Hints:
By secondary structure, the chain is of the alpha/beta class. The chain is 33% helix and 20% strand. The chain has six helices and seven strands; from the N terminus they run ββαβαβαβββααα. The strands form two sheets. Strands 1-2-5-3-4 form a five-stranded mixed beta sheet. Strands 6-7 form a two-stranded antiparallel sheet. β1 (10-14) and β2 form a beta hairpin. α3 crosses α4 and α4 packs across α5.
Amino acid sequence: xxxxxxxxxxxxxxxxxxxxxxxxxxxxxxxxxxxxxxxxxxxxxxxxxxxxxxxxxxxxxxxxxxxxxxxxxxxxxxxxxxxxxxxxxxxxxxxxxxxxxxxxxxxxxxxxxxxxxxxxxxxxxxxxxxxxxxxxxxxxxxxxxxxxxxxxxxxxxxxxxxxxxxxxxxxxxxxxxxxxxxxxxxxxxxxxxx
Length: 194
């Protein structure tokens, strides 16, 4: 099977929040993945896809890994949204400007054998749809950005992010302003508006 191209990590920064939307590594590419995380200062990884690597090497390097998988191309379930926003509130209140990485398997494609007439085997590829960008969009919306602006902001950095089902979800999403910070420019005030 041919080697698949992996998109470069994309940093999304807004106010005192930094996100790294990245590819999902495998055990074979884990050292490069860890180097990328360190380069951007990410100390938390949110994995929203099936497990493709052992998280122990990351944890040995002081990087925590959280697993919140949800269906490919779908909007995130309510529990994932609540956990995501709680994590971000704690993370960015305690350490404004820190970086949270989030990844799925989007765009990498999955291949499986398909039998053709006469017993010949062919390979079919299905591109998966991004899940990580919709979580970043929710964070931007919760911090006060309009949903249209959040989508455009992310798509400027990651073309093709957010499918039509996710777009409808974000359009209907009603923020509760859970990521509005009192003073995002100073590290002295480390509280969030509740």
